């Protein structure tokens, strides 16, 4: 299996599955059975990883499977380096570019700077918010063991992003733009959960 466990003192300061290994498993997610198999393989592979608690906590978010969570965490590393969620959004390239001329500021397309793989994951997860929010979702069951604070963030994200997806779609916004907006806000919830999840010493 294409996992690359690095040294704790590496430049990324994490001992984690390689991005290549996660990409390999993510590509295999063409059906529910395969996705489940991939998620289990990732859960087993990261069981002793320092950031495993963050991966587990991020699954309180709708659309965030073990594969999505592990990919995001492996690429981002420690979220403590981002002082606020907007810094993470900018690092992911999910904020619009700006051009200023005198007192005029124009916003353009997404900057798409930073890590393309990490940026893709929130966009993929964003598709799940096209459906109405519901408490009976499987992701709520899998997060039942998590602290109440984390579960509350997951529910807040679901209700807000489902409503926002519907609002933007009804306003006639192109679907790529809707997904980008959902992914940007989802990144903020990812930042919040990651910051509130204690890591082993």
Description:
With 201 residues, the chain is mainly alpha-helical. Helix content is 54%, strand content 6%. The chain contains 9 helices and 2 strands; from the N terminus they run αααααββαααα. Strands 1-2 form a two-stranded antiparallel sheet. A hairpin with a 2-residue loop joins strand 1 and strand 2. Helix 3 packs across helix 4 and helix 4 packs antiparallel against helix 6. 36% of the residues are buried. The N terminus is likely disordered.
Roughly how many Å is the radius of gyration?
17 Å
Main sheet strand line-up: 1-2
Percent helix = 40-55%
How many helical elements? Answer: 9
Number of strands: 2
Low-confidence stretches: 1-16, 29-33
Largest sheet: 2 strands, antiparallel
Strand content: 5-15%
Helix and strand sequence: HHHHHEEHHHH
Would you kindly provide a brief summary of this structure?
This protein is mainly α. Helices cover 54% and strands 6% of the residues. It has a two-stranded antiparallel ribbon with strand order 1-2.
């Amino acid at each position: 299996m294409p996992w690359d466990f690095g040294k704790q003192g590496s430049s990324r300061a994490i001992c984690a599955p390689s991005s290549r290994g996660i990409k390999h498993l993510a590509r295999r997610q063409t059906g529910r059975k395969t996705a489940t198999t991939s998620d289990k393989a990732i859960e087993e592979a990261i069981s002793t990883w320092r950031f495993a608690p963050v991966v587990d906590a991020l699954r309180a978010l709708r659309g965030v499977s073990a594969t999505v969570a592990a990919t995001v965490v492996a690429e981002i590393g420690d979220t403590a380096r981002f002082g606020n969620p907007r810094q993470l959004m900018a690092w992911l390239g999910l904020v619009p570019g700006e051009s200023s001329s005198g007192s005029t500021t124009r916003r353009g397309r997404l900057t798409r700077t930073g890590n393309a793989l990490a940026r893709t994951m929130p966009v993929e997860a964003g598709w799940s918010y096209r459906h109405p929010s519901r408490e009976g979702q499987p992701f709520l069951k899998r997060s039942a063991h998590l602290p109440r604070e984390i579960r509350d963030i997951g529910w807040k994200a679901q209700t807000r992003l489902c409503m926002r997806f519907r609002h933007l779609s009804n306003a006639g916004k192109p679907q790529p733009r809707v997904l980008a907006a959902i992914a940007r806000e989802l990144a903020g919830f990812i930042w919040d959960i990651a910051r509130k999840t204690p890591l082993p010493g």
